[in-house]
Amino acid sequence: MNDAERNASRGLVLLHRHTATARTPPLPDLPEELIMEILLRLLARTLVFLRSVCTSWRNLISSPDFTCNHLYRSCLRDPSLTPPRIAYYTHSSDYRDLYGVIESFSVQSILDNPSEPAKVDYFSGQRYHRMVGSCHGLLCFFYDDGGQNTHGILWNPCTGFTFQSPQISGQATLCGFGYDHLSDSYKLFGIIRKKVPLPSGLEFSSRIYTFGPTSSWRKIDDIPLGLLGVPTDDLFMPDNMEGVFFGSNRTCTINWRSVNHVVVYFDLGKEIYGHFFLPYTDLDNYF
């Protein structure tokens, strides 16, 4: 047993005493900061069971902030605790089956036992799922009820924890997900398409959601298409509808490749748009 496991065992003993049964007198309430510190030292598979202790623990362990802190500490103690994972979307061959399943498995499990089937974690539901991106081991996706309303979902495949955004009317077209280092939060960006009365028929608006217990969808400025030479009455259609997240200690952006070697980005911290040109190469003559 290594130091991390020994510390986790000591924490479990203390927590067990804190949640004593009716036959044993409980200890005085532990400070919330101490409870959080103990929970952060435990393994992810242990936290799955501890969510059932009480509502406050479930809310704490399921929160995005706790997930981020737990992942960070786990990586510092032992990088092997958080191996890379592959997530993918599967759909039934039956055209009558409208709902797909998001699956995830550990790359390390294949490397360790290549002859054994990998253990797959599933996220399934009764609505259409659309994967947006991943960051720090968390998977983000949209699901909707056929185009009328949309939710954003944050899922931790290792623990099964999920966090759901409030419902928003419409369907996401262009979108992206990433981590904002300035506010220490996860954000979901989407251009929401909504049906409106004729003559327009459709309405597009840019929205952003910061994952948190009291957050809501906020309307922000639309992408300035004029800077890109795109007519303002055209919808911005990049090569990748799900933006690619780039994060560093200086900036965190979601990026889409557009026409004419232009990359459009959205700064998650400042919540502003920008763009830059990709360099031309000899290969460009072949496409």
TrEMBL record:
Gene3D superfamilies: 1.20.1280.50. InterPro entries: F-box-assoc_dom_typ1 (IPR006527), F-box-assoc_interact_dom (IPR017451), F-box-like_dom_sf (IPR036047), F-box_dom (IPR001810), SCF_F-box_component (IPR050796). It comes from the Eukaryota. Signal peptide: none annotated. CDD domains: F-box_AtFBW1-like. Residues 24-75 form the F-box domain. PROSITE patterns: FBOX (PS50181). NCBIfam families: F_box_assoc_1. This is F-box domain-containing protein. It comes from Arachis hypogaea.
